[in-house]
Automatic annotation (TrEMBL):
Its main location: cytoplasm. It comes from [Phormidium ambiguum] IAM M-71. This is Putative tRNA (cytidine(34)-2'-O)-methyltransferase. HAMAP family: tRNA_methyltr_TrmL (MF_01885). Keywords: Cytoplasm, Methyltransferase, S-adenosyl-L-methionine, Transferase, tRNA processing. Gene3D superfamilies: 3.40.1280.10. It is found in: Cytoplasm. Residues 3-140 form the tRNA/rRNA methyltransferase SpoU type domain. Could methylate the ribose at the nucleotide 34 wobble position in tRNA. GO terms for cellular component: cytoplasm. Its EC number is 2.1.1.207. Belongs to the class IV-like SAM-binding methyltransferase superfamily. RNA methyltransferase TrmH family. TrmL subfamily. GO terms for molecular function: identical protein binding; RNA binding; tRNA (5-carboxymethylaminomethyluridine(34)-2'-O)-methyltransferase activity; tRNA (cytidine(34)-2'-O)-methyltransferase activity.
């Protein structure tokens, strides 16, 4: 099943909401530091409610630490970004994909985008709106991957 990776998340409630979504779907959540908060942050815990025991959480101190794991396990790195090359709806997802999302303020760093197998964007009708909330973007990408892979039935 596809995995969610948050690279340098900054806002605890967003990460808590994403953790809750991952708990509900049985999806692994990988946090790549440095984080903009402590894992024990009360706002993070509050947003995740009492679902934390159900979260398959992996905390990586750095990108290199995460990337070493990725190289061992394999799979495509799919970077979600407002400047992506492909709509997230048009990609054919694979079970071993890693869905990468950057920080709320900066997105994914260019060096990480450069090594992604594909960069994806979420189409929006209003050109004046630059991006969606991180937790909304993760949900959209994750549920599309799950739909295509037959996990919603």
């Amino acid at each position: 099943m596809a995995k969610v990776v948050l690279v340098h998340p900054q806002i605890p409630p967003n990460t808590g909401n994403i953790a809750r979504t991952c708990a509900a779907t049985g999806t692994e959540l990988h946090l790549v530091g440095p984080l903009g908060f402590e894992i024990s942050d009360r706002y993070l815990k509050r947003a995740g409610l009492d679902y934390w025991p159900y979260v398959k959480l992996h905390n990586h101190q750095s990108w290199q630490e995460f990337f070493t794991l990725h190289q061992q396990l394999g799979g495509r790195l799919l970077g979600f970004t407002t400047s992506g090359r492909c709509s997230y709806l048009k990609l054919q997802y694979q079970p071993d994909d890693w869905l990468l999302f950057g920080s709320e303020t900066k997105g994914l760093p260019p060096d990480i985008l450069a090594i992604c197998s594909e960069t994806l964007y979420i189409p929006m009708s209003e050109p004046g709106v630059r991006s969606l909330n991180l937790s909304v973007s993760v949900s959209a990408g994750l549920f599309e991957a799950r739909r295509q892979l037959g996990y919603l039935e």
